[in-house]
Amino acid sequence: MNTVWGLLVASCNPYNPSPQPVAPKEYAKAYVEAHGQCYDSIQASVLSLDLYSAGLELDSAYRMRGSGYNLYLSDIFVTDSLLSPGSYTTGTTGEQFSFLPGKNYEGLPTGTYLLQVADGALTSITLMDSGRMEVRDTADGIVDIRFTLYHGRETYDAHFQGPLSTKQDE
Predict the structure, then answer these.
(1) Cα 4 to the chain's mean position, in Å?
(2) pLDDT band at 8 (very low <50, low <70, confident <90, very high)
């Protein structure tokens, strides 16, 4: 019986899952959008931050073209309409220097999430349930942003250094 079992196991092909794509550590382009004080019960202004990896960009109608990753933070709570230098953490109370964690809201992602796009088509959404963001200004309008985000037990570290654009600048 052991010989038969051994032959069956030996003849099976081992399970070789397809390798999962690895999200980038560096982002090539970042857009910031000011939304003002858009929550009645929160005394903070709200920004969104939209980052694109190399190979993924927006066309003139703001549709994603190419293949890559889009890291999106829908609600960042700030004292004014600027992404000020400092340490930001996830939170749900709208405190200044915080940003919303990723959530599924009626079938749509909101808060902080990572989109994977292939040939302009969405292939996956990863909700980031907690994390932090460090923002530093450097010379000549260049900003340095470092992210440590979490999806369950998985850690995602990413970085952007460059000018922050608005979609109207393009």
Answers:
(1) 51
(2) very low
